[in-house]
């Protein structure tokens, strides 16, 4: 683990003349730094206060950006420790996506400079050109994914992005209690996806909005079920997700599979003291991908990954949603 320090040739910047919000400017620059390997898994981002001072911004702005990166599954935020780049599927996906983009961008910049075209003017004009072509814009489906803080929402977002190729924004269910937040979120989406856990609640909140809501579900991968079934009778096994609701969902999958030989207990990583007791007392702990790094750090010998997969019907639904003319 290392605290990342900016080198003299690599600095984050904000520009009030740019039409993107300050939050978006900072978030996208950080995603470039992560995607191109300037930030590595395990690196600590600068404290929010230090970053705010560096950019001349309010600390709350940086906290908001860090929380957005957390929602995207790129970082973990631990009180007293800071914001750390994760080593997971989301970060690897970003690296895989940004590396060819970087190569293309460098070639484009070189050619623009060789023709003495101002870069800011070129990229502003390029964005305007895209906006003029509806066929290009229409290819990017905008999906609003709604979940609660307790479930492994990064898993769902990654799967939706992988299958649909859409622009996916995750919104917490608790945030949508605000009518203003609901209005803004729905206005920026072509359709909404939620999970079976919150189907009725989401539909109730969105009554009166002219937008379609689709429901997907996930289950445990078969290898983990077979592994858990082989535990000794009465083994104490913990199931940990971002919140207890997610841990309970994991434990329910074991029960649904007819596995009765263990004593299952759900928990969320938001309960630090209870988590510490669990890692000391339990035989094995299964953690979702979003919680795995934090739990594994506490108990590397006891922690196992609880891999999730989309239900086949949900995967088929997502494929259908991204088909032309749907």
Automatic annotation (TrEMBL):
<dbReference type="GO" id="GO:0003700">
    <property type="term" value="F:DNA-binding transcription factor activity"/>
</dbReference>
<dbReference type="InterPro" id="IPR036390">
    <property type="entry name" value="WH_DNA-bd_sf"/>
</dbReference>
<dbReference type="InterPro" id="IPR036388">
    <property type="entry name" value="WH-like_DNA-bd_sf"/>
</dbReference>
<dbReference type="InterPro" id="IPR000524">
    <property type="entry name" value="Tscrpt_reg_HTH_GntR"/>
</dbReference>
<keyword id="KW-0804">Transcription</keyword>
<feature type="domain" description="HTH gntR-type">
    <location>
        <begin position="20"/>
        <end position="88"/>
    </location>
</feature>
<dbReference type="GO" id="GO:0003677">
    <property type="term" value="F:DNA binding"/>
</dbReference>
<protein>
    <submittedName>
        <fullName>GntR family transcriptional regulator</fullName>
    </submittedName>
</protein>
<keyword id="KW-0238">DNA-binding</keyword>
<dbReference type="Pfam" id="PF00392">
    <property type="entry name" value="GntR"/>
</dbReference>
<keyword id="KW-0805">Transcription regulation</keyword>
């Amino acid at each position: 683990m290392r605290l990342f320090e900016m080198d003299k040739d690599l600095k984050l910047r904000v520009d009030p003349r740019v039409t993107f919000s300050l939050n978006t400017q900072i978030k996208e620059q950080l995603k470039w730094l992560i995607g191109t390997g300037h930030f590595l898994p395990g690196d600590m981002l600068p404290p929010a206060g230090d970053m705010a001072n560096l950019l001349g911004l309010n600390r709350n702005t940086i906290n908001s950006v860090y929380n957005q990166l957390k929602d995207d599954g790129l970082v973990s935020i631990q009180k007293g420790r800071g914001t750390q780049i994760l080593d997971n599927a989301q970060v690897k996906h970003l690296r895989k996506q940004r590396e060819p983009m970087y190569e293309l961008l460098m070639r484009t910049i070189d050619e623009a400079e060789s023709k003495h075209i101002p870069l800011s003017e070129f990229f502003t004009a390029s964005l305007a050109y895209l906006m003029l072509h509806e066929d290009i814009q229409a290819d990017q489906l905008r999906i609003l994914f709604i979940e609660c803080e307790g479930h492994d929402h990064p898993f769902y977002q990654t799967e939706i992005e992988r299958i649909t190729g859409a622009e996916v924004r995750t919104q917490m269910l608790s945030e949508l209690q605000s009518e203003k937040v609901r209005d803004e979120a729905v206005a920026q989406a072509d359709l909404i996806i939620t999970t079976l856990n919150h189907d009725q609640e989401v539909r109730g909140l969105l009554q009166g909005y002219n937008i379609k809501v689709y429901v997907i579900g996930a289950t445990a991968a078969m290898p983990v079920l077979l592994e858990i079934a082989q535990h000794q009778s009465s083994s104490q096994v913990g199931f940990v997700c971002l919140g207890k609701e997610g841990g309970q969902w994991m434990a329910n999958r074991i029960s649904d599979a007819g596995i009765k030989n263990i004593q299952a207990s759900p928990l969320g990583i938001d309960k630090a003291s209870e988590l510490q007791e669990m890692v000391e007392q339990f035989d094995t702990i299964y953690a979702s991908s979003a919680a795995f790094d934090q739990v594994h750090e506490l108990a590397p010998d006891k922690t196992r990954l609880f891999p999730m997969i989309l239900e086949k019907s949900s995967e088929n639904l997502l494929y259908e949603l991204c088909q032309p003319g749907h």
